[in-house]
């Protein structure tokens, strides 16, 4: 059954035009969960991430630049970026503002989605949710974005935001449309 699931997942990836390899993992119970390993179609370098957010073209004049979101790593199946926790991202009680976490999550998911296209399409957010689990007062948080579904028209991304001690602070899910 596991090899059949892997073959089906690989066929789905090829049918959508995305080049990815699947890995079947056993989860609790009798079921199987498929985790996609993406191969970035457009590029796998950090400069493309910066270009996709507009920071390179517009300097610090957009939200990504103003909040100093920095892409730090493109993995085989994930994308990482950091954001400072300071006066720009604090809420009135001196903690990381939940909206800033959502900005980091949507930025990561949108750029990851863009990297899965040929560069001719746009990736826009349809829905985002976030569960704020732990507060952060200072330092930098790190977002890790992984695909739950990478289809030709819709994508679903899981973004986990960690503090400097690698503790989960926020868990977010973003659904995007490829237009």
UniProtKB/TrEMBL annotation:
Pfam families: 4HBT (PF03061). SUPFAM superfamilies: Thioesterase/thiol ester dehydrase-isomerase. Transmembrane segments: none annotated. CDD domains: PaaI_thioesterase. Residues 93-170 form the Thioesterase domain. GO terms for cellular component: cytosol. Keywords: Hydrolase. The keyword Hydrolase applies. Its EC number is 3.1.-.-. InterPro entries: HotDog_dom_sf, PAAI_dom, Thioestr_dom. Belongs to the thioesterase PaaI family. This is Phenylacetic acid degradation-like protein. It comes from Enterobacter cloacae.
């Amino acid at each position: 059954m596991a090899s059949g699931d892997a073959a089906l997942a690989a066929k789905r990836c090829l049918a959508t035009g995305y080049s990815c390899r699947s890995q079947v993992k056993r989860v609790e119970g009798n079921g199987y969960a498929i985790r996609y390993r993406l191969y970035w179609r457009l590029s796998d370098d950090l400069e493309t991430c910066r270009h996709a957010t507009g920071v390179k073209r517009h300097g610090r004049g957009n939200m990504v630049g103003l909040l100093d979101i920095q892409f730090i790593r493109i993995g085989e199946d994930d994308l990482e970026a950091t954001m400072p926790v300071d006066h720009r991202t604090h809420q009135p009680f001196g903690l990381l503002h939940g909206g800033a976490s959502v900005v980091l999550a949507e930025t990561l998911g949108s750029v990851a989605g863009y990297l899965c296209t040929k560069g001719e399409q746009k990736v826009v957010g349809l829905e985002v949710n976030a569960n704020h689990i732990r507060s952060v007062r200072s330092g930098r948080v790190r977002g890790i974005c992984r695909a739950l579904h990478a289809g030709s028209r819709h994508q679903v991304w899981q973004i986990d935001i960690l503090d400097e001690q690698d503790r989960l602070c926020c868990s977010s899910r973003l659904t995007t449309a490829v237009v």
